[in-house]
Amino acid sequence: MDWGRTRRNQKNDEKEPPKQKNTTTARDSSGKVDQDNMAPADIIKAINDLKTDLKGDNNTLRQEITHLGQEINGKLDMLGAEVRNLSDRVEEAESRVETVERWAAESTEALTSCLKQQKVLQQKLNDLESRSRRNNLRIFGTDWGARLGELLGSWQRVTGSLGAEDDVTRRARYKLQSFQSDNTAQRDEPQRKGGKIKK
């Protein structure tokens, strides 16, 4: 073995710079950067490219978020307006229901009062009807056998003091005349049969 030659080759190898891979192909097929073989300028360029990409992505995201926020704000405004509208309608409905309930209570109370009054009036009417069907005309202060003139005179004195109308007086006079004729017929009946009249 030639030791001298080997040493020379080693010296030559030391003088020659080590061979580097092509820096332009620093990215492999998957897109990853081969960091062992990149020069500092390439790293700076890659960082700047990354910054540019990130800035673009950030701007796009910012615009999308702003647009989304505007849409959400618009929808929230619409919902707020609808809620206010519904709230106004509910308040109006509550006031109407309260008015109807108050009216129903007042109507029920008025109807109950009317029914009570009707019952009282019906009782009075029944009482008056039953009394009007009876023959209960009595004149106090006159004798049973008094003459018609005396009865009419006392009747006119009574009706005059009460302020009765002429129509009432006429009706009373008619009634007394019919009463007097009935009494006369009853008194004359025993004489026709031959009986005696007791005095």
Description:
Keywords: Coiled coil. Residues 1-39, 175-199 are annotated as: Disordered. Residues 10-19 have a biased composition (Basic and acidic residues). Residues 76-131 form a coiled coil. The chain is mainly α and 199 residues long. The protein has two domains: 41-134; 141-187. It is built from four helices and no strands.
Specify the biggest β-sheet. none
SS element count, helices: 4
Q: What characteristic shape results from the CA principal axes?
A: rod-shaped
Estimated structural class:
mainly alpha
Q: Roughly how many Å is the radius of gyration?
A: 65 Å
Kindly report the oligomeric state of this protein. single chain
The overall average pLDDT, rounded, is: 74
| Straight-line distance between termini | 200 Å
Question: Ranges with pLDDT <50 over ≥5 residues?
Answer: 17-30, 195-199
Helix content: over 70%
What is the N-to-C order of secondary-structure elements (H for helix, E for strand)? HHHH
Query: Got a strand count?
Result: 0
**Beta-strand residue fraction:** under 5%
Supply the number of structural domains. 2
Biased composition (Basic and acidic residues): 10-19
Region (Disordered): 1-39, 175-199
Keywords: Coiled coil
Coiled coil: 76-131
